[in-house]
Every structure is written in C-alpha cells, then in structure tokens.
Design goal:
By secondary structure, the protein is mainly β. Helix content is 7%, strand content 20%. It has a domain of 45 residues. The two termini are 28 Å apart.
Length: 74
C-alpha cells in the first residue's frame, strides 16, 4: 500500500508536520539513510485505540531519540 502512495519532495511537506521515517544507520554514528518517509501521519499518532488493546507502532520509536539514543534534534 505504501508503494502506491503519491511521491512528494521534502519541500512539499508543511513545516511542523508529523512524519514517520524508516531509516538505517550511516557510516558515521550521527548519519542515517531514510528508506521510507511518510507524511500526513497525524491521524495515526492521535488515533484512539478500539477495544482494550493499546495503539502501538512497535518497534517504531515515536520519541526523538530512537533505540540507539540518537540526538533528538533534527
């Protein structure tokens, strides 16, 4: 489904819009290579869970740091 979404440039994303980024580590510890970057994800992040199960995007990190403790400043 993700592969059928329209492609946009980074300039097309509004400033402050929530994104989900799938990335891999780069050569240097502070570098990453984005594999998939999704915009317009606010409804996913603010959705109320149905039933008793909590909404989770595990193993994704929704915080700024990530699993390796990366810097949270973009």
């Amino acid at each position: 489904m993700v592969s059928r979404l329209p492609q946009v440039t980074l300039a097309d994303l509004p400033k402050g819009e929530a994104i989900i980024c799938v990335a891999t580590g780069g050569v240097a510890s502070e570098e990453v290579t984005a594999i998939t970057l999704l915009g317009g994800v606010e409804p996913l992040l603010t959705a109320s869970p149905r039933g008793s199960q909590a909404f989770t995007l595990s193993p994704w990190s929704i915080g700024g740091g990530g699993a390796e403790g990366a810097d949270s400043n973009p």
